[in-house]
Design a protein that fits this description.
By secondary structure, the protein is mainly β. 0% of the residues lie in helices and 44% in strands.
Length: 351
């Protein structure tokens, strides 16, 4: 996992024994002389690392990205040359597609996607965001110094109608790219929305994603588009109780989500009809997870609400931990790994 000191000078990689919780590796990979500002809802180490075989890929956004050998902990390559003013701190996690490590940089100054050769760290392609933000003032400067241009979403690779697409939500638009080349395939522009923070999901031939802050909406989009497709390929939209920070889940025929203010919803994937919408209480930043039968909602106040993954609302259990959740949970075998504001927990049935 990644961590950082409170002021963002020391960016460190950690390895924790999943069985005992013992820290077995700790190494500072980057020192940042002048860290960017990070909002209180964010940290200097928010992106989630990736483990693939004997390689670990970690990023802190533009301040640094690195690859480590998972066995020897040797640093195989590092990059600290990407330019991006994240403005509120970085948040987009990396993904792997084939031999590519794909990174997202949606800052106040620059907005682009980049793909690195995961073996060497060298740049394979870089594609600038194409939307016209239409936010320049009379002085030629962006509104609020580019605050409406930033984003924190993690991309998704899908297979639709026999073609592979890289889906990425940026500020004011969702994009599809060829993952091997970075060529833009289509775009859905929604100018009223910014700071997209969730990861999209795909199923039933449709792409589902919340558009971001400023009264964000949940969209269902046909990915078989070309060029600008906002007028032709949005199949339905939902405007009430849509999550801004927590990502959504697609389970069977329904989309499940938790709004930042604590309203959970179940929506029919094909139609956008709301099956149920219930207040479970609390505030939410962490994304929910599911085992296919249950959904776990983890609040900033430390409460976990477990509901049935069904079109009928039913609370199965509630639990409380100190510290509160900002980070999304992880799964290790039959256990949940929970990172609160103060502790790291492993939760499992007693054997």
């Amino acid at each position: 996992m990644t961590t950082a000191d409170e002021k963002g000078h020391k960016l460190t990689a950690l390895a924790v024994d999943a069985g005992s919780g013992e820290i077995v590796f700790e190494k500072q990979l980057f020192h940042i002389e002048k860290p960017q500002y990070a909002h209180k809802f964010n940290t200097y180490a928010s992106p989630t690392p990736i483990i693939e075989g004997d390689r670990v890929y970690l990023t802190w956004g533009s301040p640094g990205t690195a690859c480590l050998d998972a066995n020897t902990k040797k640093v195989l390559w590092k990059r600290d040359d990407f330019e991006c003013d994240h403005f509120r701190g970085s948040g987009s996690s990396p993904i792997i597609h084939g031999n590519l490590l794909i990174l997202t940089f949606d800052g106040a100054d620059l907005q682009y996607m980049a793909a690195l050769d995961k073996r060497t760290g060298k740049t394979v392609w870089r594609t600038e965001r194409s939307v016209d933000f239409q936010d320049l003032g009379a002085d030629g400067k962006p509104f609020r110094d580019g605050d409406m241009r930033k984003g924190y979403s993690t991309p998704l690779v899908i297979r639709h109608s026999g073609k592979t697409q890289l889906i990425s939500i940026g500020a004011m638009a969702c994009y599809a790219y060829e993952p091997e080349t970075g060529k833009e395939l289509w775009r859905i522009t929604e100018r009223a929305h910014h700071s997209a923070s969730t990861r999209p999901v795909y199923g039933h031939g449709l792409l589902f994603y919340p558009t971001g802050f400023a009264k964000g909406q949940l969209l269902a989009v046909d990915p078989g588009a070309k060029g600008e497709a906002a007028d032709t390929h949005i199949k339905w939209r939902l405007k009430r109780s849509v999550s801004n920070k927590p990502s959504i889940l697609l389970i069977g025929d329904h989309v499940y989500m938790i709004a930042d203010g604590g309203v959970a919803s179940c929506v029919e994937a094909r139609t956008g009809k709301v099956a149920w919408s219930e207040r479970v209480g609390g505030n939410y930043s962490a994304s929910p997870i599911t085992d296919g039968k249950r959904i776990f909602f983890l609040s900033e106040e430390g409460k976990t609400t477990v509901v049935a993954a069904k079109p009928e609302f039913k609370v199965l259990a509630t639990n409380q931990l100190d510290g509160g959740f900002m980070a999304s949970p992880a799964v290790h075998r039959d256990a949940l790994i929970l990172r609160t504001k103060t502790h790291l927990y492993r939760v499992a049935n007693k054997k």
